Amino acid sequence: MSVPAAAFARLHKHVQAWIWAQKWHQLRSTQAEAVDPILRGNTDVIISAPTASGKTEAAWLPILSALAEQRDSGPVPSGVKALYLSPLKALINDQYGRLESLAESVDMPVHRRHGDVTGGARRALRETPDGLLLITPESLEAMFVTQGTRLPGILNGLQYIVVDEMHSFIGTERGAQVQSLLHRVELALRRRIPRIGLSATLADLTVAAEFLRPKQGAAVQLIGENSDDKAELRMQLRGYIGSGPASAHTADEEEFDAGVDKKAIAEHLFRNLRGQDNLVFANSRSNVETYADLLKQISERNRVVNEFFPHHGNLSKEFREDVESRLRASGTPATAVCTSTLEMGIDIGSADTVVQIGAPGSVSALRQRLGRSGRRGGAATLRLYVSEQVVDHRTPPVDQLRAQTFETVATIELLLERWYEPPNTNGLHLSTLIQQVLSVIAQHGGATAAEIYGALCEAGPFGHVDRPMFIRLLRGLGEEDLIMQASDGTLLPGRVGDRLVNHYSFYSAFQSAEEYRLITSGRTLGSIPIDHPVIEGNLLIFAGRRWRVLMVDTANKVIDLAQARGGRPPAFSGGGAEIADGIRQRMRLLYEGEDIPAYLDLGAQTLLSEGRAAYKRMNLAKQPLISWGDDIILFPWAGDRIMNTLHVLLTSYGLDVSLDGVALNLRKTSPEQLGTLLRKLAASEKPEPPALAKNVAVKNRDKHDMYLDDNLLTLSYAASSLDIDTTWPVLRRLSESCEASGADPKNSEVSFPESMSFPPGNTSTERCTVPFAVVDVETTGFSAQRDRIVEIAIVRLDATGVISTWSTLINPDRPTGPVHFHGIRPGDVVSAPRFAEVLDEIAQQLAGAVVVAHNASFDISFLINEFARAGVQAPSWPTLCTMQLSKKSHPDHPATLAETCRRLNIEAGKAHTALADATATAQVLMAYVERSNEMGSPDLFTLPPLPVTPPWNPSKASGRTPVNTKPRSGKR
What we know:
Oligomer: single chain
Number of strands: 29
Strand content: 15-25%
Helix content: 25-40%
Shape: globular
Radius of gyration: 33 Å
Number of helices: 33
Largest sheet: 7 strands, parallel
C-alpha cells in the first residue's frame, strides 16, 4: 500500500467519503505525511508547502477525523473542539466556506469570530460552544477580556489549535500577541494543546518551530514540500521611464495626471489581461486606486465592459467580497488591482496572470503572490513592471542607479534560488507585553505581579524579560495610571488602563489610524485615514470611481460623496517593507556583473544598462562614497536594519545623516572627514546596542511604547531596530574601501607636518634610548577641525618601562558627544580645565619623545587643531602608530586596540577611557619592541630620525596660568 493510500485508510470513514465526493485521485504527499502526527494528538506540527498545495486540508482532514473518532467512542466534553487563528478576516470568511462541507460530513459546526460577525452569531457561540472556531488574534483577545473566567467553559473541549499564514506573524508585535494568546489558552484549560502551523513561505523552519512552541521548538514535527521547484514559470519584467516629478495638483482639479509611465503600464495591462482572471499587486492603496481608475477610463474609451476592480483594506467588506466573488465566478473575467489583501490564502481560484507593479519589497511577498498563478498544475505567469525617472544633470546619484530595477531583478533571482528573508526575532515586544498585562488583569478581575510574571514571562513567551525589567515596566504602568495596586497586592486597572481596555482598539497589538467613513446615498464605500482629511468640494478617486465631497461630518467622522468626473487618490498612511540584507547584497553583484536576464524586455534592459553605467561612472565598485555638492553619499549595500544602525551611529557623532533607499546622505561632510570616522569606528570596539540607542531622539515605534520609561524604550528600540553585530563587518569593509580609494584619514583636511612621515631608519631599537610618550584622546566626534578633545592621557616610558602617567578630563565648552562610546557625560567635565589651560603640561609631557598612539593620525590631528585654537603652533612631533605595527605584524587580522591586546595577551582595561587605552597602547608598543629585538628585524617598525623635539618653552604660549587637572574618576 502506498503512503497516500495508507494515510487515507487512517482517516474517519465520513472524511473518506467527503474526499471521494471531491473526486480526488489520492492525497497529496503533504496531506499524507500530516495524517499520523496530527491523529496522535500529542505533537506540534508545521506544514510548509507552496500555495494551493492543500495545506488547509492537510491539517483539517486528520483533525476532523480525530474529533469524529472521539465522538464515536463516547461522550465528549462540551465546548469548542478546534481553534483556527488567521491574520485576516477575509481569510476566515474564505476558510469558513471551504470547511463547511467537510465539517458537515462529520456533523461538526463551524463558527467564525471577527469584527464583522454579527451579535447573534457571537451569542450562539457563547451559549452553545462546539465544533470549530475560526478567529483572528484580535477577536480571541476580546474573548479573554470580555468573557474572562467564562472562557475555559467555551474552550473546554479544545483538542487542536491551527495557526494559518504563520510567516506573517513571526518577529512582529502581532506575532508576540499570538504566542501569548496560545499560551494563555493552555493556562486557562490547564493542559497542553497540540499546535499546527501552516505557511507557504518560511525561510527557516527551525525559527518557525521555535515561534510555534517557544523553548521547545526542537520537538515540533516539520513537514515540507518543494513541488513548486517543478512548476513552469513564464515571466517578463518591463521597464518604463516616467515624466519626472509631477507638478503640484490641487484636490479640486477635474483631471488627475497619473504620469506617462503609469498610463503606459495601464495600457499594457488592458491589452494583455482582458478576458482573464488576474491579480495586479500595486504595492500601495493609492496606486491601487490610480491603476483601477486608469483601467476603467481605458475600458470606457474602448466602449467595453470594465473588468478591473480595486481591492484593499480600506474598502468596505461588501465591496471586497464582491470583487472576490467576481474572481471565483466562471465565465465573468475579472482583474483585481490589489495590495497584500489578496496575497494570502483566500481561495479565489487560479489567477491566469499575477502582476507586480514596482519592486515587491521582499522575496517572501513575491513568492506568496506568484503562488496565486499556475495552480491546478498549469504554468504560472508573472508580469512585472518598473518605472524610473528621467535622468538629467539635476538627478541625484541614487536615482541615476535605477535602484528599483536592480531591486526587482535581485528579488526575482533570489526567488528562483528559493531564498527567503529571515525574520527579525530579536525584539523584546514590550509594547505587546503591556497589552497582555492589562488583558490578564481584565481576564481575572485582578492579579498579582508574581502571577502575571509567572504566566507571561517565567513560563510564557516573554521569557527574555527578567524580573527587574518586568518590575520596572509595572512601575512605569503605575506612574502612567494604567494599573494600580490594592492593599493586598492585587494589580487592578488604573483610570487610563480601564479606558484603554474598554475601547475596541485595545484588542489589536498594532497601531491603526482613526479614519473617516466614506458614504454615498447611504451606502458605505470604505474609509480613509483621519490624518489626511479632505474638505467639501474636493475630488477623490476611491473604490475605482471618481467622487466629489459633499459634506464632511467631523463629529461622526463621515464623508458624504457624490459621483464626479475628476479626482485623485487619497493619501494613505503606511510605509514600505523593510529590505533585507540579502537583496541589497545581490543588487551590488548585479551592478558589477554583465549578464542580462532573459526575462527583461528592451525597456528593462536599458534601465539595467543605465544603472550599471552610473555605478561604473561613480566608481562604486572600488569606493563606497561619492561627493554630491557639499554632501557625501555613502553606499553600504546593506539591508535596512544595518542602514538604520549606521544612520544612528553616524548621527551620534554629530553628522547630519539621512536615509535615502540604498544610500546614506551626509550633509556638509567631506570624503576625508567621513573616511576618518569610518576608520576610527572600524578600529573601535562595538558599542552595546542600548548605549547606541540612547542617541535616538524618537524611539517610539509600537502601539504602547508611549508608556515605557526611557530606559525600557531604549532597550526595546535597540533590540528591534539595531543590528550591531552585522553592522560592524560592514563598517570594516567600508573603511577598507575608503582607505584603498584614497578617502582616508591620511588625506583629510588636517595638514600634518613633514616630520610625521619618516624614511626607513637604521637605528636598532635595542640601542635606542629615546623615550616614548604614548597618548590617547577621547573626543566629542571625529572631525579634528570641528570636534574637541574631552579627555587626554599620556604615558611616558623608555626601554626599561613606564616612567610616568598623566591624564585629565577637558571641558570642551559643548556637549561631550557620544556618551555610549567614551562614557563621559556633560556633568563630568563642568569643573575640568579647558585645553588651553593644560596645553603647557601636555606639550611638556610630549617634548623630547617619540609620540605614540593607536591610530596616530587621529590623535595627533586633534592635538594639532587644539593647539591652533589656543593660538599656538604645535611642535613637529615624531610619531609612531601601533595600529600600523599591528597591521604589519598581523596583516590578516583586525587591528583594533582590543584585538591587538588579545593577540598579545595584554589586559586592556576599560575601553575608551583615555588612561586605560594609553596604558594598553604602551604595553603593545613594548611587546612589539621586544618582538623586533627577538627577531633581529628593525623593519617591523621604523623609528624617526633624531633629534626629537626640544623641551617645551611655556613662553611660546603666554597668558596662561597653571591649573589643576581632573583625572577621570573611573565611573563610566
